[in-house]
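From the shared-data thread, chain only:
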Amino acid sequence: MKKELALTGLLCLALSGCAGGNAPQAAPTVTETVTVTETATATVTATVTAEAAAPVAAAPVAAKPAAPAPPATAVIPAAVAGMNAQALDEDLAALGFENIIYNSDTGKTVLLLSNWTVTGIDNPGAKQPLTKAVVVHVTK
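Structure, as tokens:
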């Protein structure tokens, strides 16, 4: 029983040194010789040879293809007079415009776009950067 525990312990210690690290390494071979004397007349010698399993390298992860970059500019729609401000807002957002300013012709604060009608837009038909403000004129 002591022999089996000693051999098992040595084998575990030898193999545990092989684990760890992320880089693939060659599998080492471990050889241990153990001599156990139980009585004065009997001597037992055992040799243990073990090969650790080769570490498995992780498969490379394929990079996702880059999405096409959105256009940096878009054309401001020209025929907008009479449109509902909410509908125009959705159209401008779909074109990619990020900063849309609503200017009331009456001086009131524009809160709920669906209650306003578009009377005009600055720079209609012009190509403009998407980050530049688009000014829309509205009335109730």
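Confidence is low (pLDDT under 50) at residues 1-7, 10-14.
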